[in-house]
Design brief:
Elements lengths: L2 E14 L4 E3 L2 E3 L4 E3 L6 H13 L5 H4 L12 H14 L2 E11 L9 H12 L6 E6 L5 H4 L3 E12 L2
Parallel strand pairs: 5-6
Antiparallel strand pairs: 1-4, 1-7, 2-3, 5-7
Helix pairs in contact: 1-3
The protein binds zinc ion.
Length: 161
Amino acid sequence: MMSFRIGYGIDFHRLITGRDLWIGGVLIPHYKGALGHSDADVLLHAICDAMLGAACLGDIGVHFPDTSDEFKNIDSKILLQKTFELITTAGYAIVNIDSTVCLQQPKIKDYIPQMQQTIANILSLKPADVSIKATTTEKMGFVGREEGVSAYTVILVTQLK
Ligand SMILES: [Zn+2]
C-alpha cells in the first residue's frame, strides 16, 4: 500500500528599496525587493518548509541558519535543491505542490509559468505538479501596505520505502 503524507509551509519577508525581488526562483522587476539573509525568496522558502514538514525534518531555519555566512545572500534555488536532497534521502517523493503568494504589487501572473518550470526542474516534477497562485490582500494589512510579501504552500509526498 502506498503511504502519503502532507506538509505545510509559510514564509514572510519585508519589502524595501535597494533589494532584488526574487519569487519562485524568478527575478521580478520592481522598485522594492525582499529583505533577508539569503536572496529572501518567499515562495521557495515556503516550499522548503512544506517539504521538510511532510518529512518531519524540522524547518528551514534548522537546516540553513540565518546566522551562517554560508547562506548569506545565497540563491534560494540552492536551498530548494538541498531540501529536495534531504527528503529524497529520507525516502520521500513529491506528488504535487500548491502555493499562494500574497503581494499587493507588482502583478506576478505573467511570471508564474517561469516559476513553475524553474521549481519543477529542481524537484524533478512537471510544471503541472507545481501550482502557484497569487493574490493581493485588497490593500489590507502589511501586504496591502506593500511592506511585505508572504507565501503559503501545501505539499503531498509519498513514502518510497
Ligand atoms: Zn524566507
